[in-house]
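The methods section describes the discrete structure representation at length, but only in general terms. What matters is that the chain and its backbone geometry are given together, residue for residue. For illustration, here is how one protein appears when written out as sequence plus structure tokens:
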Amino acid sequence: MDLDWWFIGELIVNGANAGLMYSLVALGIVLIYKASGVANLAQGALVMTGGYVVLALAYDAGLPMWLVIPLSMVILFFFGMGIERVVLRRMAGQPLIMIIMLTLGLEILLRGIVPAVWDRGGQSPIIPITLPADAIFIGDMLINTSYLLGGVIAIFLVILFVYFFRTRIGVVSRAVSDDPVAAWSVGISVERSIALSWGLAAVVSAIAGALWGSIQGVDWTLSLLLLKAVAVAILGGLDSIIGAILAGFMLGIAENLAAGFLDDIVGGGTKELVVASVILLTILIRPHGMFGREDIERI
């Protein structure tokens, strides 16, 4: 059988761009883990919330998109900080596993409440992000411009956050993650640092919610991006921003190639199989991921 290299190239390019958009969701997990050492399992619901906020501002308030995006980022920033202040701060001193379970509870709670508040009568409206064309052709390859836009934005945000963690505020955040008691003892506001990380993760969620909502529409299923984001964060390393972008790149290509060649044979579902395999194999073979810091505890 002759291989269609244009088809393979199309799968790789579109898969890479989709994977970069997964990285955009995973950035929220990495930011919070990098600043607090907590794995945020509410990130999928935050992305969904971001999508609904953008939708409400665009459709219900009738605001132009150039104003909707920055306004939604501001709203989500304070929403994220509010979650930390009202919910997470009460868990100070509690076992880490209980804090992680709390974030999972937040995921489930938001997944139920937010679509109920903004009920669209069972509809999944598309966020109106206007692009010059839905697709472009490179030779015989058809490239989805929505995924391409998401990939470019993901790379830009990674560069931005890499720089952020080299600033004084970013170094303080890392100090809090390494040893919150020691950070507190030298006068660092641990609570403020963690709240900032939740606010930034929510800002990323607003951007991811807008981009994904422009592709698949806005409804509760946006929260299902959590599984892809977890796979990316685990593969790249939970505390590695560069790892998140590379892992998303790899995951997107792998699942798109699997779907392109195997879905017709097995009847579909290969993307989910790839994601599950990545999570399991990474944990078994390299628990700290490709670029994560390996902490060895002696007992």
Remarks:
- The first strand starts at residue 135 and ends at 138.
